């Protein structure tokens, strides 16, 4: 399987795990040193990210990962794309459309998420 296919499949499995609220599947997808930077600048380490669904505070109804480009650097890939989600956090809407940088690594023959960085999509200043 080529790298682009590996990254596409990783993205699909990630989106499906988010929609199911599947902590175990997220844990399988994340490298031990995984880090997420959220759309408001907060940081979650692997265990925090994996366990977001554990207490029922987060519910993801829909999540898609589209319009991405993939760059490969040996065993590391950087994919920049768009995540669109319909979700709730502690009963409040958490819907959004975000530009997301996904960093993945190949370890022990598997492609794993090493990092995600979410940014709100907005019009650049002066436009």
Task: Give a topology summary.
Layout (H helix, E strand, L loop, with lengths): L2 H18 L2 H7 E8 L5 E3 H5 L7 E16 L2 E14 L2 E2 L2 E12 L2 E11 L7
Parallel strand pairs: 1-7
Antiparallel strand pairs: 1-2, 3-4, 4-5, 4-6, 6-7
Could you characterize the architecture of this molecule?
With 127 residues, this protein is an alpha+beta fold. It has a single domain (3-120), classed as Nuclear Transport Factor 2, Chain: A, CATH 3.10.450. Helices cover 24% and strands 52% of the residues. The protein has helices at 3-20, 23-29, 46-50; strands at 30-37, 43-45, 58-73, 76-89, 92-93, 96-107, 110-120. Strands 1, 2, 3, 4, 5, 6 and 7 form a seven-stranded mixed β-sheet that branches. The N and C termini lie far apart (42 Å). The model has no long low-confidence stretch (mean pLDDT 93).
